[in-house]
Write a structure and sequence with these properties.
Structural class: alpha+beta
Number of strands: 16
Strand order of the largest sheet: 1-8-7-13
Order of helices and strands: HEEEEEEEEEEEEEHHHEEHE
Largest sheet: 4 strands, mixed
Radius of gyration: 19 Å
Helix content: 10-25%
Strand content: 15-25%
């Protein structure tokens, strides 16, 4: 009986590195580190959506999964980031997903449009994605861009989890609860491979990098080398690592997801420079609290409330 228990634990450990997107519940009794400070790498092409970096959990503790630009499984879908939430005495990972709306992601301020509630980085209209260049590093050609400033009048922090001691005190709105029950798509194959690759490098372990990963973000999934990878800046708070690393307790997820079809990445230009971390400088409130439906942005009863005052079609590069 005892040997069988050890075999079961070993099997769980083998599953952990790939479980964040695999429909398996992950629970840990140690809070994740604070989010690192980093710049956003350049958008590699039209139709890419920014997916922020996050702390995942493996056999050796927390490890960083770099933020990256991703092609959604279907035109018109938006990414709701995953988050760690406190419940029943443990921190539980709530996996991110693709959907028509931006759902609840714990109030975590991931930056670059994901300031804790909704998304200010852009919207879909007529099968084209319009990028808010104020919070995104978009300097490529032949894409739709606009400029909308996000007012900074909220508390700015780098806390990476919801609830519990020192966690973010945020709760889903009624709309977000409804959107959470909508049809969703799991992370794409490239996103899963991106996380799996990060789990295999010791440099991403929080115990090794002390909350400052050598690669914090990439322009494309699995692109961990080259000029378009971005390191983390100096952490502004100490990283506390516990020597005791608990074993997560996987179980079945209640939320069903449909596996998306893989989609070939798009060709694009190569802008030279990353932008600063807008989580710290442009965080602000949202008058929508959600994503934008296909076609145009919308607000509370007003389809033009969140429409930027000026849109343009970028047909030139930038130095």
């Amino acid at each position: 009986m005892r040997s069988a228990r050890f075999v079961w634990i070993a099997l769980l450990i083998l599953l952990i590195p790939i479980s964040s997107f695999a429909g398996v519940l992950i629970s840990v009794n140690i809070a994740p580190p604070v989010l690192p400070v980093y710049e956003q790498p350049p958008c590699p092409g039209d139709g890419y959506i920014w997916t922020p970096g996050y702390w995942a959990y493996g056999p050796e503790g927390y490890y960083w999964v770099p933020g990256t630009w991703v092609i959604p499984p279907t035109v018109g879908l938006l990414w709701t980031p995953g988050y760690w939430g406190w419940g029943s005495g443990v921190y539980v990972w709530h996996a991110g997903y693709w959907g028509q709306h931006i759902g609840f992601y714990g109030g975590v301020n991931y930056g670059f449009g994901y300031f804790g509630n909704g998304y200010d980085g852009g919207y879909w209209r007529d099968r084209h994605f319009y990028y808010n260049r104020t919070v995104n590093n978009v300097t490529i050609t032949n894409v739709h861009v606009y400029n909308k400033t996000v007012i900074n009048n909220v508390t700015v922090n780098r806390i990476s989890y919801n609830g519990g001691r020192g966690g973010i005190n945020a709760h889903p709105t009624h709309e977000q609860e409804m959107w959470d029950r909508e049809h969703h798509s799991e992370a794409t194959n490239l996103q899963r491979d991106h996380e799996r690759d990060a789990s295999r490098s010791r440099g991403f372990l929080a115990a090794e990098n002390h909350g400052r990963p050598p690669i914090a973000a990439t322009s494309r999934p699995r692109e961990f080398h080259g000029p378009r990878v971005v390191p983390a800046h100096e952490a502004r708070a100490p990283f506390n690592h516990s020597e005791a690393q608990p074993i997560p307790a996987p179980g079945s997820r209640e939320r069903p997801y449909d596996r998306p079809m893989p989609r070939e990445e798009m060709r694009s230009g190569r802008p030279p420079q990353a932008v600063r971390d807008y989580r710290l400088e442009n965080a602000g409130p949202h008058n929508n609290g959600h994503g934008h439906e296909n076609g145009s942005p919308h607000g509370k009863g007003n389809s033009h409330e969140n429409r930027p005052p000026r849109e343009e079609h970028s047909n030139h590069g930038h130095d």
